[in-house]
Automatic annotation (TrEMBL):
Its cofactor is Mg(2+); Mn(2+). The chain crosses the membrane at residues 189-209. This is polynucleotide adenylyltransferase. It comes from the Eukaryota. Gene3D superfamilies: 1.10.1410.10, Beta Polymerase, domain 2 (3.30.460.10). One of its GO terms (cellular component) is cytoplasm. It is found in: Cytoplasm. The keyword GTP-binding does not apply. Its EC number is 2.7.7.19. GO terms for molecular function: metal ion binding; poly(A) RNA polymerase activity. It comes from Sphaerobolus stellatus (strain SS14). The lineage of its organism: Eukaryota, Fungi, Dikarya, Basidiomycota, Agaricomycotina. Its main location: cytoplasm. Residues 259-319 form the PAP-associated domain.
Amino acid sequence: MTSQQHQAQRQRHISRHQWTQSLSRDLHNFVIQLLPTAEELAVKEDVRKLLERLIRTIEPESRLLSFGSTANGFSLRNSDMDLCCLIDSSQPPLSASDLVTMVGDLLERETKFKVKTLPHARIPIVKLSLDPSPGLPYGISSDIGFENRLALENTRLLMSYASIDPVRVRTLVIFLKVWSKRRKINSPYLGTLSSYGYALLVIFFLVHVKNPPVLPNLQQLPPPRPVPYEDTHIGGNDVWFFDDIDLLKERWQSSNTESVGELLIDFFKYYSRDFTYNTGVASIKMGLLKKSAKGWLNEYKDGRDERNRFCIEDPFETDFNVARCVTKEGLYAIRGEFMRASRILAARPERTIMALAQLCEEREDDGYAGAYGAEEE
Ligand code: UTP
Ligand code: MG
C-alpha cells in the first residue's frame, strides 16, 4: 500500500470513528428526552399506593408491585404501568380469574378509572385507564395481574442487566423500543414483537454475539454462595441469576469498549444478515439454540400455526417462546425494518441526527401484520 493509500485509509477510519462518536452522542440525547419525568414517576407511585390500599380492603395480606418498564429501567414517557398483585395469605388462594372479577368490581365502584376485566386471558388481568386531564396530560393506563412471580423475576433480571452498563444497555433498549413502535413492529396482538422481546434481543446480542461480550451471562455465573432449591425455583422454573451487581463489578469487567453507536450499527447488521431465523432460537441463558433441539418446529397447519416462525426463549420459562405471536407477515416486516435500519446507518448521512430521524420516521400502518393476528395478548 502506498503512503497515499495509507493516508486515505486512515482518513476513512477517522471519519468512521468520528461518525459513530457523533451517532452515540445523538442517540444518548435522543433517549434522554424520552425518559419519564420525576413528576410522572411520582404520580404513578401514588396511583400504585392508592390501588394497593383499595385491594387490601378485600385481601388484607396483598401487595401490589410494579414490573415491566416502570420497574426495569426501560421506561418511556407515558408508558403503561404494569402491576402485579401478590397475596401472602395462608388461606386457600382465590383463582386469578375470580380475583380479576372481584378487584374489577371494587375499582369500578371506588375509583374514577375506566375498568375492563379479562378473567379468562392466558394471564388474567384488570385493565385500568384514566383519560387525560390538566394534571395528567397523557392520562394513565395500567394492567393489574395476579401472582405473576415469573414476570417480577424477569423484570429484576432485565433491571440487573441494565445496571451493569446503564449507558449502553438502557440507550440501546430504549432506542429499540421507540424505533419499533414508530415503525409499527411492536404489537404482539397484530403479529409482531413485544418490547420485552426486543429487550431480550438486545441482551442476547450483548452477551452472546459481541466478542468480547458487553455483558456477562448472569444466569451462568457461579453463585457466590450455595442456593437452596426452593429459593430459586418458581413452578419448576429455575429463576436463579447473579443479582449482586456490586459484587459482580468487583469480579467482572467487560473488555468491550465499543460505543453505543457502533453497537447499534452491529445490532441491526446481525439481525438483518446473520441471525438464523429459520433454525435458530435466541436464548439469553444458553446462547444460540436450534429450534429442532427444543422441539420448536414450524408446523404451519392450514398455514395458521404460526407459533415458531421467530423464536426467543424466555429466560426463566424456557419452554415459552416470547416471539410466539409473530406471524409470517410480522416477521417479514420486522426483518425488513432491520434491513432498512442497517441500510440507513451504512449510508452514514453527514449529520447523524438525520440518521436517527430517518430511522424513527413514523411508518404508516399498512396492515401487513394483521392477517393472522395473534389471539391472546
Ligand atoms: P412489555 O413488552 O409491555 O415491556 O412487557 P415494557 O418494557 O413494559 O414495554 P412498553 O413500554 O409497555 O412498550 C412488560 C413486562 O411483562 C412481562 C415482562 O416482565 C416484561 O418486563 N412479559 C412480557 C413477560 O413476562 N412475557 C412476555 O412475553 C411479555
Ligand atoms: Mg409495558
